[in-house]
Amino acid sequence: MSLIPIRSRLFVLGLLVLGVLAGLQVPATASEATASKAKTVMIYGDSLSAAYGLSVREGWVHLLSEEMGQVRVINRSLSGETTYGGLQRLERILRQQPPDVFVLALGANDGLRGLPMQKTEENLRAMLQLARAAGAKTVILGIQLPPNFGAHLNRGYEDMFRRLARQTQSGLVPFMLESFALDTRYFQADRIHPTAEAQPLILKTVRPAIVAALQKAR
């Protein structure tokens, strides 16, 4: 018997076996499947969201990440950040880490520095538009300035945040410190930055709007 036909048959059989093995796919584990579906929330704020004066684990953003389970929470907040600074770095950040939900918590430092409210509004609007163009649902965390800045200025900020939320179809928390703003026990010595004890209160205030945005996310 000739060896050539036998070798040919073995070669063809080998190709068939390889073809069958190549067609088999190892199913993804439960954790891999969950990870692929996990949504991302980005917090983009200033010292009020950057756990100023506290450990990172004490801040409300970290507390949010612990509560949200499979949702990935990214904190790109920066102490001292203004709306101008935030706008300058946002486009690059969105390219690197496109979120499903973008939570904008800037504006306080603009007010403390006496920057024009019109410019603050323009910068905030531009950031919200960038985030929405990147496919994210957006949430605004509003702020108010200390009482000595005057009620008229704070009414202006309140109106600005409501207007931006309406114009950009964003979720809105009118004042992220609302539940304790008048209680000095919840502020550090500078009377501006919340204590560790205040962080769960901030989370309780902002969490519903973030969850609502997640439910609408792609």
Give a nutshell description of this structure.
This protein is an alpha/beta fold.
Q: What features would you describe in this structure?
A:
The model is unreliable at 6-36 (pLDDT under 50). Strand 1, helix 3 (60-67) and strand 2 form a beta-alpha-beta unit. 32% of the residues are buried. The protein is α/β, with parallel strands linked by helices. The termini are far apart. Helix content is 50%, strand content 11%. The chain contains 8 helices and 5 strands.
Shape: globular
The largest beta-sheet arranges its strands as: 2-1-3-4-5
Mean model confidence by pLDDT: 87
Strand content: 5-15%
Number of strands: 5
Radius of gyration: 25 Å
List the SSEs and their pairings.
Blueprint: H1 3-23, H2 30-37, E1 40-45, H3 60-67, E2 72-75, H4 83-96, E3 101-105, H5 108-112, H6 117-133, E4 137-141, H7 151-168, E5 171-173, H8 199-216
Parallel strand pairs: 1-2, 1-3, 3-4, 4-5
Task: For this entry, give a set of tags.
218 residues, alpha/beta, 8 helices, globular
